[in-house]
Write a structure and sequence with these properties.
single chain, about 475 residues, six-stranded mixed sheet, globular
Length: about 475
């Protein structure tokens, strides 16, 4: 092993000269407690905070290097490390620089934190929501149940990111459990004992952050109800022969003249279950409007869509052509229909003035958790089928948006303990969510229906518009 240096990174450097400084750096005292003294070849110095540790199996020593967030990124650059251990939330530039030190060695970054200090947004977006494995302790699972949320002990997300999250609560501290055994009264439960230690924090959000380390309450996710293990489904498992033809199909687009378009395809079952089955993210900077329309038409195939929706921004006429993007899209789709590429389209604007679509998505996400699987929303005790929503696993951009779309946050994270969450969602991850919101405001899509049968030819015009049970 050419490199045997491990970096411990925290807010302050350890110091043996001033006792209070040692207590501020938690990594060094804990290391000293657990490391056999005979293995310490050289302790940290006042000018060089590096420990030399004997390797029992080699003549080459290990080096424990201490660094702090106050040091410049340049001071931490240019050398390789086999591990980086980080205490609490570092600035993103510090994390990025230290992560680069591990590329040649294939080492790991280990971060221990409570999501109440510092700017946790980047950790939540880049690490927590992108984890391949999430392990939760029973205390965390039980807390989610108290909040009417369904979170399993273990969660697996098939992706190529080697990230593991171990989520535990203050309740899981063995040190506190020893105090409980010594100091608690005979009739006091462990949960009551821990709660008594948090009695000053009477705000539920503060308790969720401080006691249970729940990122979702710090990040301000718009759709906290989204649970990937439930809402993401395998299309082959549930629709081995493809989606049925008697579903109501819709297309919805979040349009922008320069940013990537967010296009989503969905289908609504006769029992009011929405399936988001396809998507397209495409740049108008590198593709002409005709090219984008052609890709949408090819993806749509020969399915008949009962609803084609687009952002009202697409209604603005372009100076160069004196027509709006919507007018051009509809003209192109008429051309594609004549060529037999698709069934045509007539795009119209969706409503952007209310949050009714957002509320509809939340309702469907909650109902999906209740039903647990598709086709399970018509229990005999239910008068009307529960409206649900499901996402095919191939819709990675839509899933990423639903998982990560958050409200704007205060620059000082501790402000969450005294201020309400901001009411304006961030632009990042908003585009596919906006497109879905627009579709979920359509009454024709969100109400139950009975499909029209086409077994007999329809000759009477009145009969054509009649719903058949």
């Amino acid at each position: 092993m050419s490199c045997k240096t491990i970096r411990f990174l925290s807010e302050t450097l350890p110091s043996k000269v001033e006792e209070n400084e040692s207590s501020r750096n938690t990594l060094y005292p804990e290391l000293i407690k657990r490391l056999p003294p005979e293995l310490i070849v050289k302790d940290i110095g006042s000018k060089r905070p590096v420990m030399v540790i004997q390797d029992p199996y080699s003549s080459q020593h290990f080096y424990i290097e201490f660094a702090s967030y106050s040091q410049s990124t340049q001071a931490q650059a240019g050398v390789e490390r086999i591990y980086v251990l980080i205490d609490e939330v570092p600035p993103y530039s510090i994390f990025e620089e230290n992560y680069s030190r591990l590329i040649s060695t294939g080492g790991d970054v280990i971060i221990s934190l409570t999501p109440a200090q510092g700017d946790v947004d980047w950790i939540y977006d880049m690490l927590y929501t992108q984890a391949r494995h999430i392990y939760r302790t029973p205390a965390i699972v039980n807390r989610h149940k108290q909040l009417n949320e369904d979170k399993p002990l273990y969660e697996h997300h098939p992706n190529n990111k080697d990230i593991t999250v171990i989520h535990f609560a203050t309740d899981d501290s063995p040190y506190l459990y020893e105090i409980y055994k010594r100091e608690a009264s005979p009739d006091q439960t462990y949960d009551d004992f821990i709660s008594s230690r948090f009695f000053v924090l009477d705000d539920e959000i503060a308790v969720n952050i401080r006691r249970y380390g729940m990122f979702s309450y710090v990040s301000g996710r718009v759709f906290k109800e989204f649970n990937p293990s439930i809402h993401i489904i395998d299309s082959i498992r549930y629709f081995p022969e493809g989606l049925p033809t008697n579903y109501r199909y819709f297309r919805t687009i979040d349009y922008h003249p320069t940013n990537d378009w967010a296009c989503a395809w969905g289908a609504v079952s006769p029992t009011n279950e929405v399936f988001i089955y396809d998507e397209l993210k495409i740049s108008p900077e590198t593709n002409t409007l005709y090219d984008i329309a052609h890709l949408i038409a090819k993806k749509s195939s020969t399915i008949h869509f009962s609803c084609d929706l687009i952002d009202p921004l697409a209604q603005i006429k372009q100076i160069t052509t004196a027509t709006s993007p919507v007018e051009d899209l509809n003209r192109y789709f008429h051309h594609f229909k004549r060529q037999g590429i698709c069934k045509g389209a007539y795009f119209r604007s969706y409503d952007t003035t209310t949050t009714r679509g957002r509320d509809e998505i939340r309702l469907r996400l909650k109902n999906s958790i209740t039903c647990k699987t598709p086709f399970n929303n018509t229990e005999t005790s239910i008068i009307q089928p529960l409206p649900t929503i499901w996402f095919f696993s191939n819709c990675k951009y839509t899933i990423e948006s639903i998982r990560n779309w958050s409200y704007e946050t205060w620059s000082d994270r501790s402000a969450l303990l005294t201020k309400d969450m901001k009411e304006k969602p961030q632009q990042k991850f908003s585009h596919f969510c906006t497109a879905l919101e627009g579709a979920m405001k359509e009454r024709s899509l969100t109400t139950p229906y009975s499909p029209i049968t086409t077994q007999q030819p329809i000759t009477n015009r009145i009969e054509y518009f009649r719903r058949v049970a």
